[in-house]
Amino acid sequence: MRMPRAAAAGRFTVVLCTIAVLLLGACGGGPTPQAWAAAVCTALAPWRAEIGTLTRSTQQQMTAQTSPAQAKENLVRLLRGAEAASETARRKVEAAGVPDTEKGEAISQAFLASLTAVRDAYGRASAAIEQLDTTRPAEFYQGVRAAVDTLNKEYSASSLDTSELDSVELQQAFDEVPECR
Fold first, then answer.
1. Domain boundaries, the chain
2. At how many degrees (to 10) do helices 68-95 and 137-157 cross?
């Protein structure tokens, strides 16, 4: 019994795709430790700069002579910017893949978890400030301070120290690649 051409072509395509997946999977892991470290540092450099700028702007807003409504609007905008910048960095680190090194998956996941926690901390701070009532200035600014204190605690708790990596290859790569200096 002969198979119709369309069915034969579809079957051939499935076989080719299966072979390609098997070959690609057998070709090895992800990027080298050096390539991965370079990609991660390239993703994090603009994020760190953006977060530094947003942090300074937030501190200025905390001491500026503005109305509570203006302060609220500015702080929410700044915190949402930090949340978006953190998500952009997280996506870029995710796109870097998993380094081809021992415990590469766990290390990659630790970076992603840290950036996710930072992103979420900014989101929670933004939401907390957005919920504050601006008709009572003293209570508003007290609520802002509480939200920022919580943000600082969550941010500190989410930090990832690259010197604690379980991979000598990655530690060396982070020390050597120009993107990380």
1. 1-30, 32-180
2. 20
What DSSP assignment string belongs to 82-138?
HHHHHHHHHHHHHHT---SSTTHHHHHHHHHHHHHHHHHHHHHHHHHHHTS-SSSHH
* Three-class secondary structure of residue 80 per DSSP: helix
Report the C-alpha gap between 162 and 164 in whole angstroms.
5
pLDDT tens over the chain, length 181 residues: 444 444 433 333 333 333 333 333 334 579 999 999 999 999 999 999 998 998 888 778 777 778 999 999 999 999 999 999 999 999 999 999 999 998 899 999 999 999 999 999 999 999 999 999 999 999 999 999 999 999 999 989 998 766 666 788 998 999 999 999 8
- Euclidean distance between CA atoms 105 and 121, whole angstroms: 24
The span from the CA of 34 to the CA of 96, in Å, is 11
